[in-house]
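Figure 6 in text form: structure in, sequence out.
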């Protein structure tokens, strides 16, 4: 953010950047952990869905639980899959399994538990909130267009303290291009009874940036398309453009998200990832 004003803070920020450089995998990481549903399914469809839980040091593994219907009988069915990111790709693929054993009201006997490999599954993300799932169970192959299933709205109103990692490019002044870090104070306020929300970022060096727009919930993530993006330094307006906020999520300690913008400054582009802890 605000890389047009780097001259006064470049030295301390550069030193801080050496300490806060994120791991290489984090730059493109999207957490697909959520409940997913068929985009084309009717609103009242029940008993069908898929859970993804993503893990691993490189975030390359997804454990998937399918609650679907058996194609042969139509009865509710439950299978799992272990998907790994394909090398050099964004898709995840692996085997599907059905595990059968004693019912929960009976003593567990390991030797009576049987695991059968049924086929394969491949999840190919189209965005952070949509993707295609191709899977085979038995002799039936199914292709689904998936979306995150929204259960409840994340209420993120509050005050946070944290950091923002900023990557700027195509700016007319070379000093404004590159990767920078900012300490931020963030205030999130949603208008009562409305989908309008305001994000106010207060920088340590005095800039105050405000983003306003319509909140959209997608699963456990939120986004704001074409939010107004205005920054002031004292009484001077130094940024006047729009921003797209995405992947905004509640964490166990606070909030995280990102945005992209041209800041209303010609071809100067900005990509930002931010995270903060909720203040008591």
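Output sequence:
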């Amino acid at each position: 953010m605000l890389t047009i004003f780097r001259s006064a803070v470049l030295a301390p920020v550069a030193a801080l950047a050496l300490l806060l450089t994120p791991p290489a995998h984090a730059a493109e990481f999207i957490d697909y952990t959520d409940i997913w549903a068929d985009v084309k399914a009717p609103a009242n469809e029940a008993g069908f869905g898929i859970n993804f839980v993503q893990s691993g040091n490189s975030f390359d593994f997804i454990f998937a639980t399918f609650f679907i219907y058996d194609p042969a009988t139509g009865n509710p069915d439950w299978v799992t899959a272990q998907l790994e990111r394909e090398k050099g790709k964004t898709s995840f693929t692996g085997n599907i399994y059905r595990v059968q054993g004693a019912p929960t009201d009976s003593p567990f006997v390991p030797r009576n538990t049987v695991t059968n490999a049924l086929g394969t599954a491949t999840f190919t993300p189209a965005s952070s909130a949509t993707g295609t799932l191709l899977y085979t169970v038995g002799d039936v192959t199914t292709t689904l267009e998936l979306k995150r299933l929204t259960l409840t709205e994340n209420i993120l109103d509050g005050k946070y303290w944290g950091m923002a990692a900023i990557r700027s490019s195509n700016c007319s002044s070379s000093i404004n291009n590159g990767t920078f870090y900012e300490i931020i104070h963030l205030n999130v306020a949603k208008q009562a009874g409305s989908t309008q929300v305001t994000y106010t970022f207060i920088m340590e060096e005095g800039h105050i940036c405000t983003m306003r727009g319509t909140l959209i919930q997608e699963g456990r993530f939120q986004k704001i398309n074409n939010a107004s993006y205005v920054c002031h330094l004292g009484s001077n307006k130094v940024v006047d453009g729009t921003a797209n906020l995405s992947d905004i999520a509640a964490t166990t300690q606070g909030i995280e998200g990102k945005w992209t913008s041209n800041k209303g400054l010609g071809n100067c582009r900005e990509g930002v990832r931010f995270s903060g802890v909720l203040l008591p």
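Caption detail: The radius of gyration is 23 Å.
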